[in-house]
Amino acid sequence: MRNLPNILKAKLESRIQNNALRQLPTDANLIDFTSNDYIGLSKNKFVFDAAHQYLVSNDCLQNGATGSRLISGNHKVYLETETYVAEFHQAETALIFNSGYDANVGFFSSVPQKGDLILYDELCHASIRDGIQLSYAKAYKFNHNDFEDLERKIINFNGNNNSNFNQRPSTIYIVTESVFSMDGDTPNLEELVHLSEKHRCYLVLDEAHALGVFGDPETSGGQGLVQEFGLQDNIFARIMTFGKGLGCHGAAILGSSELKQYLVNFARSFIYTTGLSPHSVATILIAYQYLEKENKDIKLLRENIIHFNQQKNVLGLKPIFVRSKSAIQSVIIPGNEKVKYIAKQLQEKGFDVKAILSPTVPEGQERLRFCLHSYNTKDEITAVLRFLYEFFL
């Protein structure tokens, strides 16, 4: 078998030299502070058993989708699940994609057109950025959660003061996340909606890390931050990812019937791929049904988030953490070598805490990323923070 070309070897060697080489982890059976399984649905026995029983009861005994959804893969489980997801999120329609990455790449590569403008938060996920790179629209980032900077850019482009546009953009898309994957912080969604409507922009929100964590305060149903603030009718498109709080796989884009029809016709990551298996889609449906009927896991998670933040204050760790009220809590420890060392120390104490290295985050913003769960105990949270205090300070 031929070796790698020298230019690729050099890139790998650079990663090694910078202490930034990515490697697949092994299951060390540690206390989980790293997965995105916020309310434990990936291990939920009811969801596991009920998904199987659903398939048996509906005489859907096949292992695969057998093709693209436009050819042979649009099995009946899809139709019921998309209807349920749309109703749960108070959206006109839902279109399921194979993953959050596929959904973002499919949306941003096909919806914004030449002559349009995309303004996206500088900390948006890589899948959003990759989709934008495939678009024919112009794209510019705005400072993280800085809506003054965002509005300046909107006014600048609308006033045709930028040499990159010969005329005003046809459509302006504002793109951000309701909970950011690395910092765990959130934008002021009400202010953002007001700004988008003031300038007639189309607002697109990725809710990957809000599903199952935030939601309508009257139901505690984990619908996401948009519905917690009652803003679902003000958003052009929402991307809901199922591999985090829902504990399974796939994603859906929520929007109008016209948007769904457009995506079915033009989103290449939807058109040119085999659909999800009936079992995968049934798991999505059953997880949503569980989420709607049972909120004890969400309440436990919220209690743990409060406890984590209280313990940060008690130990004097608050200044080194990014401010967050979500399940994602990040402590900034600059330098790949140092943050990897502290992560290793915590792992040796039995806690699965991962170091996030540059270039995944900017140099100097390396961090430990703690993911909290409904199944973490308060004693575990207190202990891991005390060890962090010992190793870091």
From TrEMBL:
Pfam families assigned: Aminotran_1_2 (PF00155)
An MF annotation (GO) of this entry: 8-amino-7-oxononanoate synthase activity
Swiss-Prot/TrEMBL cofactor(s): pyridoxal 5'-phosphate
Residue ranges the record marks as coiled coil: none
EC number: 2.3.1.47
All residue ranges annotated as the Aminotransferase class I/classII large domain in the record: 29-385
Keyword Nuclease (UniProt): no
Key words, A-Z: Acyltransferase, Pyridoxal phosphate, Transferase
UniProt keyword Nucleus present: no
Pathway annotation: Lipid metabolism
Lineage: superkingdom: Bacteria
Family of the protein in this entry: Belongs to the class-II pyridoxal-phosphate-dependent aminotransferase family. BioF subfamily.
Identification of the protein by name: 8-amino-7-oxononanoate synthase
Species name: Flavobacterium zubiriense
